Amino acid sequence: MARVLGVSPTPVKEALLGLQADGLVVIRPRRSAEVATLTIEDILEIREVRHGLERWAVAVGSGAFSVDLCADMRSCLESWRAAFKANDLDCGMDCHLRFHRLLISSAGNSRLIELYESLMARVRIIDAYQRKGFGRPSDEIKRHGAILEAVERGDREATASAIDDHFSIGTDRLIEKLQAQGIDFGRSQGDLAVGPSPPRFTSDLSHMSSSGGLVGGVPQEVLPATDISKSVVGRSSRSLSA
């Protein structure tokens, strides 16, 4: 990879370590670096953690949310609507994730923000997968609008309830998509029954196996190997300039 990128091995190694920290790459000692995989369990656990963190961010405060927060979230939602009308998927995804980051920032807790940010690289992959031919962005924007309206009213209980609705519907839509792709699993009291060997998601495979499980999962267009290379290039450049 260093040869292809025209750089020395050191910044490439540093870049790969950074990607490993983000959960995007698995480094095999004395072997190779591989694109990390996400199982269905991983995806749903990440959603559960995000849900809990956002709910806690709302519950930990008291009184009305700040005027600046409301204005920033409103601006973010309007930018998302504009991106949706322009069919700009990347911009819409950025607006979506920024909206949730703003909600987390309302707690004013730097450790909470740091913990939430540690999930973002994987959340972006999941977000892109969910939206690929399935996102129903207009419905999703409406759900975020309900969260914002509760925030603007300063109603923390209603905000938490809107967050609950958003994550519940999003999880149901994800399960619906997986089932449409031939993955058959059930839920019992909210838990997934995925069997002893859950399907695994990779960045560059999207074909179904004959047994109905995913051989891969996140479509190639979402995070192809070239995007990993771009990440390495970017991180390598920062390492060289440091």
Low confidence ranges: 185-233, 235-242
* N→C terminal distance: 21 Å
Topology order in helix (H) and strand (E) letters: HHEEEHHHHHHHEEEEEH
User: How many beta strands in the DSSP annotation?
Assistant: 8
Mean pLDDT: 74
Structural description of this entry:
With 242 residues, this protein is mainly alpha-helical. It contains ten helices and eight strands. A two-stranded antiparallel ribbon has the order 1-2. Helix 4 runs antiparallel to helix 8. The relative contact order is 0.16.
Task: Give a quick summary of the entry.
With about 240 residues, this protein is mainly alpha-helical.
From the structure above, extract its key features.
242 residues; mainly alpha; two-stranded antiparallel ribbon; 8 strands; 9% strand; disordered C terminus
List the helices and strands and how they pair.
Elements: H1 2-5, H2 9-21, E1 25-27, E2 33-35, E3 38-39, H3 40-59, H4 67-85, H5 89-105, H6 110-117, H7 120-131, H8 137-153, H9 156-180, E4 186-188, E5 191-193, E6 200-201, E7 206-208, E8 214-216, H10 225-241
Antiparallel strand pairs: 1-2, 3-6, 4-5, 7-8
Helix pairs in contact: 2-10, 3-5, 3-9, 4-5, 4-8, 8-9
